């Protein structure tokens, strides 16, 4: 890889935390991505398999964007479900189970000592919401109904990378980290927190993207649903997001009919 003026690209690396043999410099890869950005492209998203670091004292970094330069880099390395136990990733409370009232209440009660609610509590909450009528409750129900035997590690891996890729591309559209609602543009300080983030944009950031692209809300949701339906039988995240999207499409249709 080289710059446009034939200068060799920097290729810094450092030792990893023991999970991987080494890490590549995220800043160097982003600089190279800027040099590779085609003149007719709005943005460039570079997916890499290598583990990355941003600063010398950082453990790792899964993704970063230079929004003003319209480039983003996402690493799939840490999202491998086979590493969840080693990295202590909390998978039972991943989105949308992270929104269960029982789980949220338990997190608040146990905030001082860092404990999380039991898996049993999350499952009970999902059952109690089986007949609820909101998009979130539909997502929780779909999440709970996918049996563990049907869960594909490869599809879960894909779901995690897709969420981070969407987040980083959001920065390329000029959006900062969201501080308003549950949103895919929220910042994340770790893998367990990353897993709790939703795959959708909040109303504030969705309005920004629709304005920037000229897209229609229903068309936006239908395009996402078409993709998610390809994997909903293999992964709880895709199943939950599909259910969320179907409910939102129904709500948008009802609102349009009544206006």
TrEMBL record:
Key words, A-Z: Hydrolase, Metal-binding, Metalloprotease, Protease, Zinc
Cofactor(s) the record lists: Zn(2+)
InterPro entries found in the cross-reference section: MetalloPept_cat_dom_sf (IPR024079), Pept_M54_archaemetzincn (IPR012962)
GO BP, sorted A to Z: proteolysis
Keyword Metal-binding: yes
GO molecular function term, any single one: metallopeptidase activity
Full protein name: Uncharacterized protein
């Amino acid at each position: 890889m080289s710059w446009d003026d034939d200068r060799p690209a920097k290729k810094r690396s450092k030792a990893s935390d023991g999970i991987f043999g080494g890490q590549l410099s995220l800043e160097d890869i982003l600089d190279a991505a800027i040099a590779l950005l085609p003149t007719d492209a709005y943005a460039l998203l570079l997916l890499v398999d290598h583990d990355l670091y941003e600063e010398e004292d950082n453990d790792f970094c899964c993704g970063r964007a230079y929004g003003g330069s319209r480039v983003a880099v996402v690493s799939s390395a840490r999202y491998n479900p086979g590493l969840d136990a080693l990295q202590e990733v909390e998978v039972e409370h991943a989105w949308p189970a992270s929104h269960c009232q029982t789980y949220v209440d338990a997190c608040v009660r146990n905030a001082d000592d860092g404990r999380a609610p039991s898996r049993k509590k999350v499952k009970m909450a999902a059952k109690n919401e089986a007949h609820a009528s909101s998009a979130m409750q539909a997502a929780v129900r779909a999440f709970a109904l996918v049996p563990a035997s049907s869960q594909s590690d490869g599809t879960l891996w894909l779901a995690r990378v897709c969420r981070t890729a969407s987040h980083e591309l959001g920065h390329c559209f000029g959006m900062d980290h969201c501080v308003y609602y549950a949103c895919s543009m929220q910042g994340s300080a770790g893998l367990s927190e990353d897993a709790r983030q939703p795959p959708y944009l909040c109303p504030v950031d969705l309005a920004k993207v629709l304005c920037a692209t000229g897209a229609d809300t229903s068309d936006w949701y239908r395009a996402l649903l078409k993709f998610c339906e390809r994997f909903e039988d293999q992964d709880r995240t895709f199943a939950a997001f599909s259910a969320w999207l179907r409910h939102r499409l129904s709500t948008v249709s009802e609102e349009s009919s009544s206006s």
